[in-house]
Write a structure and sequence with these properties.
- The complex is a heterodimer.
- By secondary structure, chain A is an alpha/beta fold.
- Chain A contains 12 helices and 16 strands.
- In chain A, the strands form 3 sheets. In chain A, strands 8-7-9-10-11-15-16 form a 7-stranded mixed beta sheet, sandwiched between helices. A 6-stranded mixed beta sheet of chain A has the order 2-3-1-4-5-6, with helices on both faces.
- In chain A, helix 8 links the parallel strand 9 and strand 10.
- Chain A starts with a helix and ends with a strand.
- By secondary structure, chain B is mainly alpha-helical.
- In chain B, helix 1 runs antiparallel to helix 7, helix 2 runs parallel beside helix 4 and helix 8 packs across helix 9.
- Classes of the chains: A alpha/beta, B mainly alpha.
- At the A-B interface, helix 2, strand 8, helix 7, helix 8 and helix 9 of A face helix 1 and helix 9 of B.
Chain lengths: 392, 306
Amino acid sequence: MREFFRKSGILSLTLLCCLTFAVTALAEDVIKVGFNLPLTGDIPEVGEGSKKAAEMYLKDINAKGGLEVGGKMYKLDFVFMDNESKAESAVNAALKLIEQEEVVAIIGPNSSKQAVPAGGTCNDNRVPMISPWSTNPDTTKDRPWVFRAAFLDPFQGPVVADFAAKKFNAKTAAVLFDISNDYSKGLAEIFKAKWEEKMGADAVVAFESHGTKDQDFSAQLTKIVSARPDFIFVPDNYNQVALIIQQARDLGYKGHFMGSDAWGTPDLIKLCGDDCYGQYFSTHYAAAGAQGATKVFIDRYKEMYGDVPADYAALTWDSIGLLVEGIRNAGEVDSNLRKMRKAVREGLASIKSFPGITGSMKFDEQGDPIKCAVVVRISDKGEFMFEESVCP
Amino acid sequence: MDFIIQNILNALQWGSFYALIALGYTLVYGVLLLINFAHGDIFMVGAYIAFFVATLLLGGDGLGLGLSPAVTFALCIPLTMVLTAGVGVTLERVAYRPLRRKGAHRLYVVITALMCGLVLEYSNLTVLGASRKKFPELLEKTIWHFGDISVTNLKVLVIVAAVAVFVFLNFIVTKTKIGMAMRGISYDKFAIPLMGIPIDTIIVFTFILGSSFAGLAGLLFAMSYPILEPFMGMIIGWKAFIAAVVGGIGDIRGAFVGGFLLGFIEIGVVSVFPSTYRDLFAFSILLMILWMKPTGLFGVAKTTKI
């Protein structure tokens, strides 16, 4: 028995030594970054695209020997965590990344529905967070630790309104949005305010909502169609867009649809088919006809994964770029995690402009980038064609 | 007026799915007094089976047989129903029958059913991944316009199918010998074997009926709302179960009426109020119906069910 205890004592000691060694070894030359992504749930494509872009970045930088901070090379280590496209899971994923994985900073969540609550968690725990794709103002509002790479809905809403007024000669509009999604609801309200300011008090003839899991929109669409709007604005995720457009056509609606950046995934065409051809949406970048660094990114992504990167993939790439810049600005890697996180936050906050592949961005004091939006037309082949660019 | 008629048509279509699924709940409950909570997920499996059968028959990736959409649709109906019935029967064999043999309390069988539903959902998620599937178009869509009212041929087909299934099941249960045996088991499970009626065969037959119509509902649902995901059966399954209870669970007319009632209330609420009120109002109304008649609309207190 005593023998057993002695042996197990030695064994655990050895293990402990190995562990401490491993931990210190890790802490010394590895910078750990967490990713809070929707790998399952309502928008799995978004998580998958972001993950692919991140893995490409990781491969690039580690092939070069890592990231140089303060004259020393550090390898990057990415930890991917699934938030199931749910708000509460996004908070859990953020906490897990902060407490168990002990990451220096977090990239994601993508959608505002998850980014708004997870942003609160990161801010409270004093961990820098960059959301690649969230456009809702609340994500970063009064949260010094939260940053983003996308433009904001107060900018996107007017872009949509101006474009529709010009292109369709529209006087009246209808809106159908997802009430349980911060992104969709926020953008719908911003658009409504802008359109009514532009066209008069009753210019939004129908303002209808639905829930996330809904599949039948016929009651809402019957109301919308009977109000005879010039076009319907649908700031919704791609899976719902495919159902909404088809059901509106079934109910005899023949007019235009206009969407927002949540439309911008190749899956939209797979699910929606030719119902979506000829419709427009505002987004962060257009893959067709890109140039320079953007084209290099698109070509390499295509070569690695076989499909065109959607905007969230490009924005994830830019978010990692921003974070790397922030770490460089921090000057050195502190082994004290809390100090390191603070240094990275200061580094991020001191970025004044950044040449990203989704356009160059300037940052305001809130940590939000000021950048251009693109309006895209879905061609008859299902490609996202550049239509026009709108800058603030 | 047009607005109301259009919404009645919308409600008829939406209610048809509730009715079709509620019929499956009611059949199994009628015979076994078991709430088969996996039924909503059998509906989901039906939709996926329809998807794979349809893509296999249509071809496109070089794998398929390259049949025309119309032929595919005609073959899809029986194939989906048979294969989905297979899944239902397998569940009965693997999960419910062993428990029944051991004389487990009904509660444990209900919990097992809940687990089976989760197993179906997550095995789908694991095997096929989270990305959604687009159901191919099998029926060339025709939209008929009457003034401001628009009806698609698919909408009509769904409503007709729901009514036909109801009439068929009603006939089976009330007019045939096997239906009589089903009612017999419901009445007294212990005396029936003494009459020389093979109780297991009848139970399997019930599962075949319930699951094959869940499969049909899955096929029609996938054609109407052509985007499939692993959790699509969950909420619609729960709601159909509630519809069956309000109608009087165990009664076929009850499931049918309950399904359409829920469809009408949901569409009605959304067409007047914002969508957030839908479930609140819908289920408050159903709750009130149960207050007044706790056995459900067609339910009878503790006698023969089905």
